[in-house]
Amino acid sequence: MQYKSYPLDAEAEKKFGPQKVILTEKDFAGSLKSVLPGDLIVATNSKGQFRALGMANRDSQFFFRVLTKDISDCELDILDLLQKKILIAWKKRLAHGFKNSFRLVFAEGDSLPGLIMDHYVLVDGRVFISIQLNIYGMDRLLKDRSLFFKSLVEKAFQENLTQVPADQFIFLIRKDSPRRIREGLNIEPTVQLGKVLNSTENTVQQILISGSDNFVDRFTCDLIQGQKTGFFLDQAANVDLVQGHFLRSLQEKEKTKVRILDLFCHLGQWSIRVGGFLERHQISCNSVMMDASADALNLAQQNLDLANLKGQGFNRDLLKNFPAKEPAGSEWGAELFDLVICDPPAFVKSKKDLAAGSRAYLKLNTQAMRWVTPSGFFATASCSGNLNESDFLTLVKRASGQAGRKINLVAKGGQPKDHPLVSGFTQGQYLKFLLFQIE
């Protein structure tokens, strides 16, 4: 296919290495006034030679997002190219051992800018593919492409990437991410293959989540109206990390009963997956789950009951109502917890939020750490892309001083392999995870 070409600035041309996947308007020489939001354009060097095909938007912070640096890809129809890349991403997930529910496509991490696709297997065997179109280019190409997605899964079936036939797939186009506004796009209702979903419809489903020990948990979640695409898949590897370290410590101490405090529990993933893992190793677990969302907490309690685990949920806005003193005698029980998980939403959504967000992380981690029993574990996370791991670690260490607790860093986690990282796109490296043991 033929695309309009625009030369790079001399300095940008020098820095345009293999890992570079975004460019600003300043990186281009000459006028870009003719470029419309979502246009596919070619970036060239000063001699007019091909450097990359990408999606452009002058209204975005990132004017040019690389789709491919292989000139032969330009010979393909653009929809064929997108299908080719999605199938490559699918093969990588299977090669990494992902089963049942996982992130199928992670935007720039899979050279598919602005496209998020989550693959959810339901208990009845059907598959939900939840799709987010977060930039103008992807929205223009895929917003009304029912046949595109149907033919995609037909190809996946033919290539043995899935054992589920195409007529058992359900496709959801979600356009409710705040990122769309920053790209000049509107927030729109969720669409199922061209059908706008009625808000009164039953949107709750049960999905299958596989762990590293091959045990499959069932979670009740809202794939249509729930946060993000309905479930937070990015903590999967960190859950596995905690399970291993926590179990070894408990076995060394010959402990057979534990308490878990699950802060910002959402659907109870940490309580159910860690608690169930311990129960399978003959360690009794009782969880206290907290979240500001009553709807999420209700689902978390259902999930706890579904897993036949003990625990209780509290509807609590932890940023406004978190006890600052020692917890003895509280409504959550007088005992401290063997494991406290602190997995809050992003506090630093942009660089201007860095100071305020850092203070929020410091306060929250200080308060949460006070609930951990001596020799217990403290797991804490940040999903703020604008807060790097080094600064987050420094904040948690400061929090330990304010809480009067001595901590030892046991392990660092991060994003699982279905959320691949690109060194030239630090904005995609958002998840930090730290596991400490309290002295």
What percentage of residues falls in helices of 4 or more residues?
Answer: 25-40%
| CATH topology term of the largest domain | Rossmann fold
- Termini distance? 63 Å
DSSP strand (E) fraction? Answer: 25-35%
| Order of SSEs | EHEEEEHEEEHHEHEEEEHEHEHEEHEHEE
Main features:
439 residues; seven-stranded mixed sheet; 10 helices; Transcription Regulator spoIIAA; Archaeosine Trna-guanine Transglycosylase, Chain: A, domain 4; single chain; Rossmann fold; six-stranded mixed sheet; alpha/beta; 27% helix; globular
What does this 3D model show about the protein?
- The longest helix has 18 residues.
- α6 runs parallel beside α7.
- Strands 16-15-14-17-18-20-19 form a seven-stranded mixed beta sheet, sandwiched between helices.
- With 439 residues, the protein is of the alpha/beta class.
- The mean pLDDT is 93.
- 27% of the residues lie in helices and 28% in strands.
Task: List the SSEs and their pairings.
Layout: E1 4-7, H1 10-15, E2 22-23, E3 40-44, E4 50-56, E5 64-68, H2 78-95, E6 102-106, E7 115-121, E8 127-133, H3 136-142, H4 146-158, E9 169-175, H5 179-182, E10 188-192, E11 195-196, E12 204-210, E13 216-222, H6 236-252, E14 257-263, H7 269-279, E15 284-291, H8 294-306, E16 310-315, E17 337-342, H9 354-369, E18 372-382, H10 389-403, E19 407-413, E20 432-438
Parallel strand pairs: 1-3, 8-9, 14-15, 14-17, 15-16, 17-18
Antiparallel strand pairs: 2-5, 3-4, 4-5, 6-7, 7-8, 9-10, 10-11, 12-13, 18-20, 19-20
